[in-house]
Amino acid sequence: MAIRYAAGLLLVLLFALGGVEASSQPVTEPKAGSGTAYTTNLNLLIRTLEGEAFIDRHKISDPETVKSVIDRLRNVPWERAKVSMCRLPDYKIVTVNTDPTVSYEPAIYDLWLTPSGKQLEISIAGKGQYGKMSEADSAELLAILQRYAQVVEFQCVPGQ
């Protein structure tokens, strides 16, 4: 009886620890197929701040552009962290699955341009993930964002 209890407890702990590990990874695309097939079922919404609310500026549905954005987000060295910035994000990218047969949890990426203007700092809303994109990937992603949305002016105001 004690052996069954210990084995059951060990099994539960292994599943629980496995679940924690899996949940620490950022969600960037539907769990379907391999390679670039997912980009045909994924759209990206680009949002910017207008007044006090974020509004959708553009929907990116072109598979090549979606793949380019997702690949850059995958390259971010993610770490578990709760971040608090002095201003609202400059951009938001929302992933949207267009295939109702695929199980998918959308991700909302909050993006801040660093004061130098050379890098993007990113957090995944509700996931406790934070990372700083490389200068090269930041330049490529900013070019895409600025092609689809207005250029965003930002300012850090103390106490805000």
Structure explained in plain terms:
- The chain has 160 residues and is an alpha+beta fold.
- 30% of the residues lie in helices and 26% in strands.
- The protein has a single domain (2-148), classed as Immunoglobulin-like.
- It has helices at residues 2-23, 63-74, 135-148; strands at 42-50, 53-60, 79-80, 91-97, 108-113, 120-124, 129-132.
- The protein has a seven-stranded antiparallel beta sheet.
- It is globular.
- The chain starts with a helix and ends in a 12-residue tail after the last helix.
- Mean pLDDT is 76; it is low at 1-36 and 151-160.
Q: What can be said about this structure in brief?
A:
With 160 residues, the chain is of the alpha+beta class. Helix content is 30%, strand content 26%.
Task: Produce the secondary structure layout.
Blueprint: H1 2-23, E1 42-50, E2 53-60, H2 63-74, E3 79-80, E4 91-97, E5 108-113, E6 120-124, E7 129-132, H3 135-148
Antiparallel strand pairs: 1-2, 1-4, 3-7, 4-5, 5-6, 6-7
Helix pairs in contact: 2-3
